[in-house]
Amino acid sequence: MGSPASTESRESKSHAEASATTDSDALRDARYANPFAPPDELEPDSQAHPRSLFGEILDWMLAPLLLLWPMSIAVTYLVAKSIANGPFDRALEADAYVLARQIQPVNGVAELRLPDATRDFLRADNVDSVFFQVLGTRGELVGGDRDMPLPHDDDRPQPGIVEFRDDVLRGNDIRVAYTTVDLPGLAPGRDPQGRQPVLVQVAETLDKRSQLANDIIKGVILPQFVILPLAIILVWFGLSRGLAPLHALQSNIRARRPDDLSPLEAGRAPPEIAPLVASFNDLLTRLEQNMEFQKRFIADAAHQMKTPLAGLRMQAELAMRQDVSTEVQRSLEQIAMSSEHAARLVTQLLALARAENRATGQIFSRVELTTLARLAVRDWVQAALAKRMDLGYEEPPYPVEVEGNVVMLREMLSNLIDNAIRYTPAGGRITVRVRTDDNDLDLVHLEVEDTGLGIPAAERARVVERFYRILGREGDGSGLGLAIVKEIATMHGGALTIEDHVYQESPRLAGTLVRVSLQRVFPARDKP
Description:
Layout: H1 4-33, H2 53-101, E1 103-106, E2 109-112, H3 116-123, E3 130-135, E4 141-144, E5 163-169, E6 172-181, E7 198-205, H4 207-242, H5 244-254, H6 274-320, H7 326-356, E8 365-368, H8 369-379, H9 381-386, E9 390-394, E10 401-404, H10 406-423, E11 429-436, E12 443-450, H11 481-491, E13 495-499, E14 512-521
Parallel strand pairs: 9-11
Antiparallel strand pairs: 1-2, 3-4, 3-7, 5-6, 6-7, 8-10, 10-14, 11-12, 12-14, 13-14
Helix pairs in contact: 2-4, 6-7, 7-11, 8-10, 10-11
Domain HAMP: 240-292
Keywords: Kinase, Membrane, Phosphoprotein, Transferase, Transmembrane, Transmembrane helix, Two-component regulatory system
Catalytic activity: ATP + protein L-histidine = ADP + protein N-phospho-L-histidine
């Protein structure tokens, strides 16, 4: 005998294993339900909805585009500044060369001989402020602006070479071009007397450069405000065109009849979705095989179940002819009635299975409804006469055709007539009618009306459920007749309605009017 602790341990282990099995089954179901989800999104409790493929591609295309756009603006600004600096730097370089040529040595000292015309030329700028400075060999001011900033000693260029730098003068950003000039008598390299080449600087503010850079940026950026929305529209249109085969495939599948299990044309599908089409065709093939197995099973079941029930009824009827006691006679009668009821129940169950299985390969064709209804009424004449009922039939004076399955439509009409006979008192009246709709010529109505007790309005939504019967009603029905009618009507794209119908001959009986509305088809020449 194990201890309580060990028993609790085994129970905990059993619960843990059961929980693990349940989680594994839930994960498998989630994977089958959403095969496109990443592994980390396959939690059973996940409420994430799958994203649109169109939206996913659009996001991955437009997000980089919108991210790169500000980067392109920044790069364009830098390029525009570089472009704007080019011509103005060359003009500033020319000014520096002109100013350097005006330096003359006088007794070993630099002297700036600047004509008034040259000075005016250097200062002639109606946008920017222009500055210049010349420093002698000992750093003395030879001419120009004294407060101009100086370059580092290590940054002084070789004589005859102009270099540029950015600096600040009087709180304004400036661009400086500077060079040096060798005077005769200066030793190469460092002069022993501490003298150095003459420094020449020319500078200007950056207003013209900024204006030109802004003009360049405007010329480049403004068209992008038009190009970017146009690019988004073209991407949208391109994606729509690229996904058109998927929409065509969807329309093709949706337009198929429920019984059409033929494979899709994989050869015309784009290579990206060809594997999907091939897998779908494989699924259709396996589904068709399963449907064939089911049809074969239904046929075998019908044969195997009907035969012994018919034999049981026959044996009961043969036994009833023998000289037996009253109690045995009643038992045999009950066996015969029960076997008949069971045979009818099996027939209705098989009919309901065929009706609910809308993809069993049923062949739909044009059916002449008036002829079909006339033949169905003829099949039930003897059953109506046995209950002293008036079974009538009305039809329009012209043929009426629908698209459907002959066997299933005949089964539907037989169930309607059978229900009317079973639930209408003896001596009643039943009318089967085929009529067209004056308000909608595309509809045809198949009606069965009787003088029975009727179906209360509160019960009409439930009588089409399987095995539902109204309490207190006489009759040996199984509660499947109207369920079969509804399934067959739905399979044919029709609608089932139940109404009252009051006969003048029986004012106390509401009666029942059951109507099945189907889509009418016309020959091309007769289409109204």
